[in-house]
Specification:
Blueprint: H1 2-109
Length: 110
């Protein structure tokens, strides 16, 4: 009977050791789960921030495209107006230039 009792005690110690191992594994896995949960939450927040930044960038890009179009149109209109003004001035200056040349020839001839 002593041998049976001793065998039973050995089984109990073995089961307690196994149980202690399971408890340690459970605690370790709980800690790992908490770390993964924290990482997951952090990544969700980061993802949300990136999405918001992308949306802001897209809006800014659209705004800049609109401004660019506006300034490109203004530049085109200004260049067209400059071309007109230059042409008009050339036309206005031609008779004056001819008149000035004629007067010079007359002065030189007298």
């Amino acid at each position: 009977m002593n041998k049976a009792v001793e065998l039973q005690r050995e089984r109990i110690r073995s089961m307690e050791t196994e149980l202690t191992g399971y408890r340690k594994n459970i605690v370790s896995e709980q800690q790992r789960n908490e770390q993964l949960t924290m990482l997951h939450n952090k990544l969700l927040m980061d993802m949300s921030n990136v999405k918001r930044n992308v949306q802001n960038s897209v809006q800014k890009r659209e705004q800049l495209k609109s401004e660019y179009s506006k300034y490109a149109k203004i530049l085109q209109e200004s260049e067209a107006q400059l071309g007109k003004t230059t042409t008009e001035r050339k036309r206005e200056d031609e008779p004056k230039h001819k008149h000035t040349c004629t007067n010079r020839k007359r002065r030189l001839g007298n």
